[in-house]
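A further point concerns the way the authors explain their paired sequence and structure data. The central task, working out the structure tokens from the amino acid sequence alone, is never made concrete. I therefore recommend that a typical entry be quoted early in the introduction. An entry of this sort, consisting of the sequence and the corresponding backbone structure tokens, reads as follows:
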Amino acid sequence: PNASQFFTNHTNPEGLEYGQRFQNGFNFFGNPQGNISRRRFNGNMFLFTGTWATNVSNTLSENNLNVRLQSVFNYYESTGGGFLHVWAEKINNITAPINLVCYVIRDSIVDWQVMPDNSYNPDYVHTNTHMGSIDNRAWGVPLFEATASIGTVDIKDYSYKIPENLDANNMHFLIYAYNRETYEVYQVIRQNIQ
């Protein structure tokens, strides 16, 4: 393949910052490893694929909600941008500070991919590509301090303009609240752009 086609740079500063933070001390060795809401299981955040289904099932059955999130994005086609409003409520007695992060996600992109048999596929569909954070802050903004009481509400407002070369119908926001001390994700919602 043509090197300029095959080696598209899909990285962004926020994604690189996550890699640097999680490369040591979190049991990450390489792919195919993943985490379940960044929780620790037997002291490890990153787990091999064979354990994912059980840990996801256990996490879902606990139904331990700590933060409630809602959002709306007011998109203006004439300007190619809009305003994202995120409403959050602390609904459990968590005694740790909580941050809010909003990712910009591209639903799909066709690009080169090395396949398991080492062949090259120029028409591979990559899905849910992380393009960075809406505010260029990898770790988001403070939402609730550790001393915030149950029922505390906060609203975060963002503005966002769709990059010229992208289609708003092929993008969404992924919004999540997480524990600043442990990195555990407490709640995630998807917000479509259109």
